[in-house]
Specification:
By secondary structure, the chain is mainly alpha-helical. The protein has 6 helices and 2 strands, in the order ααααββαα. Strand 1 and strand 2 form a beta hairpin.
Length: 151
């Protein structure tokens, strides 16, 4: 912080910088992803989480997916409905205990995710990680961990 900047000004500027960064990067990545794959950024986020969870979990419950993604349950339910209508995911009762629904990745969803992954990675590189030094990346990761660890 510069010697003349007041703490409340630094806090306000940091908040604005965070919001602007998030908006700018998300908009660019979303635009690139849509052009390359036809998937929205929320589509990709859900597919990515389901793919990651499917590797080690038998039942991918909507509630567990909500917690994993940090989304509100209503937001995820609406997104899953849109994706289910497009054939990217399916929901069915859990075979283990019959309570709640499992989220299943369809073949079309897996194909869409696999086609989109390279475009997503390239866009993140182009609009964020490739613009930062290794030290800046470490700071960004450290900031996220500090905040996430408080949850």
């Amino acid at each position: 912080m510069s010697p003349t900047r007041r703490p409340e000004t630094a806090a306000r500027d940091a908040w604005r910088a965070y919001r602007r960064l998030q908006l700018l990067v998300d908009a660019e990545v979303a635009r690139d992803l849509e052009r390359a794959s036809g998937l929205s950024l929320p589509d990709h986020e859900v597919l990515s989480a389901v793919v990651e969870m499917a590797g080690g979990e038998h039942c991918i419950r909507v509630g567990r997916l909500t917690a994993r993604m940090g989304w509100a349950h209503a937001r995820l339910s609406r997104q899953l409905g849109r994706m289910e209508r497009r054939g990217l995911i399916a929901r069915e009762p859990c075979e283990l205990d019959g309570r709640g629904d499992d989220v299943l990745l369809t073949d079309a969803g897996r194909d869409a995710y696999e086609r989109a992954a390279p475009a997503h990675a390239a866009s993140v590189e182009r609009h964020l990680t490739g613009l930062l030094t290794p030290e800046q990346l470490d700071v960004l990761i450290g900031i996220e961990r500090t905040i996430a660890d408080r949850r």
